[in-house]
Structure formats: C-alpha cells, structure tokens
Amino acid sequence: MLLAELEVFHNRPFSPTRRVALGRRDLPVDPPPGFGAVLLGAIVAVGAEDNSRDDRDRLRRLVHNLEHGHRIPQPQVRHRFQADTQGLARSHATLLGAGEELELDVDGDGSTLQLTLASIYAAGHFPSTVRSRVFDVLRIGLAWRGPVGRALFRQLAGGADLRWRSTAFADPRLWALDVLGLVAADDPGSKDVQRRFRTLLREAHPDHGGGTTDAAERIADLAEARRILLG
Fold first, then answer.
1. Among candidate residues 120, 142, 166, the one where a domain is terminated
2. What is the extent of the structural domain holding 77?
3. ∠ at Cα 119 (113, 121), nearest 5°?
4. Are residues 205 and 137 part of one domain?
5. Domain check: are 30 and 49 in the same one?
6. Are residues 191 and 150 in the same domain?
7. pTM for the complete prediction?
8. Residue range 182-210, pLDDT digits in tens
9. How far is CA 47 from CA 1, 43, 107, 171, 183, in A?
10. In the structure, what pLDDT confidence band is assigned to residue 154 with cuts at 50, 70 and 90?
11. Over residues 4-12, mean pLDDT
12. Which of 23, 32, 40, 194 is disulfide-compatible with 119, CB 3.0–4.6 A?
C-alpha cells in the first residue's frame, strides 16, 4: 500500500550545475507526525552517515531557517533550489506499508544529498501549524546512524506502536475509532465520542490506576483520536 510519496528533480550526474526541484508530493501528516513526515525523515536518514561535518552543519542551519520561515539564499550545500523542472532528471521516493511493516523505496539516480535537500525543502512547504513537527522528524533522520528499518521508522514516528501502524495513517478516522474503542458501523456521534474519551482518559491517568510509564503516550493518543473524530 502506498502511504506517501515524493517526486524529486535534480541535475544529471555529469551536469556542471547542481540543482534540485520538487515534483509531485503526497505527504499526509494526520495523525501527527504522519507518513509524509516519516517518509521525509527516512530519506534524510539514508544519507546521514555520508554527510561531512560541514554539510551536516549546513543542513541543520537550513532546517532551522526553513522551519522559522526565513528567506533562503541560493545555492545551499552547493545546490540551487528552483521551481523549474525542465531538463532535470527525476527520482521518486515512496513509503510503502503492509500491516505493521514499512518500506522505503527510491527509484532514480539522485544522490543522497540531493534527496535530502529535496526532503528538507518539501518540509518547508507545510503550514506553520504542523511544520515544526515535521522538522523534528527530519532532525531525527539527520542524526540517524544505522540501517533503514523498523527501528528507524519507530523513532521517526515517535516510538509508539499506534503512531506508526499503517492503519493509523492510511485511515485516520478508523485509527481514531480503534483508539477510543468505538465501532464505525455504530456511527458514533459527538456525545458518544466525548463520553468514551472521558472514560478512557480517567482509566489512563496514573491517579486512577493507569501505568505511569505509558500514561502520557496513551493520553496523547486519546486526545488526538477525539480531535480527528470531532473535527
């Protein structure tokens, strides 16, 4: 199942000028951080070990400036970011899922640095309400040292099983119903959602017998599920 995708245009390997542009993007971020952010973070993680110390510093500064809406002079890290894709080669990155297994697939000749830059610029296009969450995921990717697999995806998604299962992102409403223990066929109304939320919130709270280790994570999931269902 296709969960997120990013199309990247870039100069060809032997071109004298280094350029990067964005193409088609399907980067869902609901519920946060969403498979869109996980895809971008995974792309960044692939090339993290290959970046020189100077490039790592430049990439971190670029992340900071884009996150805060600063003007970005060009070029950055030896590449010029542009809107025009004419004459550029194409690479395509996708995040695929089946059950609880995720897989990153990259097709094309783009270098890891070009794909990293494209991912960072793509994150800068998110609205301010979610941009910081997406850039937090990219910072995890920039710091990653290791293979791209389940451990990485869990880190990018915040470490919680519910936050990175395919069902949680592919259909946020079904995920929210599952978190609250509601059934879609019953067509629960707002009062049903609120009542169930309050009951489970009370059960999850450590003062009422909930586990102290996972309480914050459980409460966050309940609040996010209520937000999705009540819109």
1. 166
2. 2-166
3. 105
4. no
5. yes
6. no
7. 0.74
8. 988 788 999 999 999 999 999 988 775 65
9. 25, 7, 15, 30, 42
10. confident
11. 97
12. 40
DSSP string, the chain: -EEEEEEEEE--TT-SS-EEEEEEEE---SSTTHHHHHHHHHHHHHTGGGS-HHHHHHHHHHHHHHHTT----S-BTTBEE-S--TT-EEEEEEEEEETTEEEEEEESS--HHHHHHHHHHHHTTS-HHHHHHHHHHHHHHHH--S-SSHHHHHHHTTS-HHHHSHHHHH-HHHHHHHHHT--GGG---HHHHHHHHHHHHHHHSGGGT--TTTHHHHHHHHHHHHHHHH-
Q: 142 pLDDT band (50/70/90 cuts)?
A: very high
Residue 229 has what pLDDT? 92
Residue 80 β-bridge partners: 19
Amino acid 55: pLDDT: 97
Same domain for 193 and 216, yes or no, is: yes
Q: Are residues 153 and 225 in the same domain?
A: no
